Amino acid sequence: PGLSIESMLSRVSRFKNSAHKRIRSPGTSMVNTPSFGASPLLTPVRSYSVQQHQDIPSYFLKTPVTNVTTLPNNIKVATEKSFGEIATIGVYIGAGSVDENRENNGTAHFLEHMAFKGTSKRSKKDIELLCENNNILLNAYTGRISTCFVAQGFREYAENCVELLGDILQNSKISNSNVRNEISVILKEKESVENDLFEVLLEHLHCACFGKENPLALTILGESSNIREMKRDRLMEFIKNKYVGERMVIVGAGAVNHEEFVEYVKKYFSNIKPTGESHITSDQSSFIPGDLRTVDKVVGRAHIALGFKIGGLSDKYYFMLWLLKTMLGEYDKLNPLGSTVTGLSQVAMEKKLCDSYSVFNSYYRDVGLFVFHTIAKAETANEIIDAFLQEIQNIAKNLDEHNFEIMKNVIYKQIIEATVGNTFSIADEIGRQILSYGRRISAEEVYYRVQSITLEEYKACLDTHFNDVVPGVAALGDVENFCSFEEIREKTKWKN
User: Fold this and answer.
1) Of all helices (H) and strands (E), which one includes residue 464?
2) What residues have CB less than 8 Å from 380, skipping those under 6 apart?
């Protein structure tokens, strides 16, 4: 508070340029350099230290190395060793709700629950006691394109964590009685989620963007009717087809030794079979933007989300849209210290256009969404949408080289922060990247990709994704007077 975005970011720039040694490849020039800023993420940038002819901040060369080994059953094992005594072990499976259909929707999430109900050698209580006695944290989550099971403990219990995860994923007691007992638990969880307006709005947005029959429009927890009718056979069929070597990445982050970790995985995941698939199948998702709104004045506010089509996880515009997200920032009037100082946030605060807004990217295999979410009074809901769309146009037309480089410095800071975060977030990022790209993208490569983005490329990206386009729209609450789908469509047309 009190600092403009330019003055704040210039401090980052001065720190970067003065506090760290920089090295240059010998005999290099700054002219006629190829750009990697818009190259697909599936394609590694090789020998970029020579090709780019640019300086490398030394701290990007000191980030931990990620080692990856592929086992005979095609499981990829990855480790990233760092300081400390905590090891996080995660099993990342490339299977989620996008791999379901109307009939079996909810299966991936149901399996997440069943993993903790006991195995052929451990009861549910035994699992709980093992974790409690060894200070192991055990957790799991299901998403649209992946499912994760994670265990975290001290260095000396790393093998115990791998063994436990191997046991619950290969030997769970998925009996008819256990399935029946879990149905009520999941229905209560679904009821809780449906009371969260943000979660409901996001589900509506996916329906509005992809159409009800698209797998990406399916809810992660599944329809209530599917949950009530869940059977063991359906769960076992999903395991057989999706819990396979090609779809599985096992990650160790923190206090781990790669060679030892690989041996643990070989020992405790030997029952996982390969299928011969070369890659996770496409989600075959089509963007069919529409409008889905629910008027309920009792809610007292307008809850609105716009979804713009972007590419999937390997999209060549990935880092450009990361830059845009950073430039737009976020705002929450109840948490001013957590808000970022940007042109949009200042307008939102000074004109009292909303209670809050956030911007984020949701990436899937073939397609993604650039999402603007806001909570506002009914009388200012249209104004905050106007301000958001106008700010993107302002950036595309008025951003200069100086401020563009300043914003890149913020991204560099975020890159480094991601490499020294907690081991859970590091393991999560490694698992996601290897599932998506087949490799871990180093901090050095991310730096080069961001550094090489030209202002011209960036503005062209904004023009492609936000000028004269049709976003998906979801709105609920006091939205009776919120602008129509056609009006929002017209608002995306930039004025000369």
Assistant:
1) helix 455-466
2) 351, 352, 353, 354
Give pTM, 2 decimals.
0.87
Tokens of 23: 């090295």
- Residue 457 is given by DSSP the state H
pLDDT tens sequence across 383-413: 999 999 999 999 999 999 999 999 999 998 8
Distances in Å between the Cα of 263 and the Cα atoms of 166, 260, 435 are: 13, 5, 21
Question: One of 112, 163, 182, 330 is an active-site residue; which one?
Answer: 112
Tally of CB atoms within 10 A around 330 = 20
Catalytic, 128? Answer no
The CA-based angle 309-38-434, given to 5 degrees, is 80
Beta carbons within 8 Å of 274's beta carbon, 6+ residues apart: 72, 73, 74, 244, 245, 246
DSSP 385-454: HHHHHHHHHHHHHH--HHHHHHHHHHHHHHHHHHHSS-HHHHHHHHHHHHHHHSSPPPHHHHHHHHHT--
Residue 436 · residue 313 · CB < 8 Å: yes
Count, in order, helices (H) and strands (E) of the chain.
Answer: 18, 14
Task: Lay out the sheet containing 137-142: strands in order across.
Answer: 66-70, 76-81, 248-254, 86-93, 147-154, 137-142
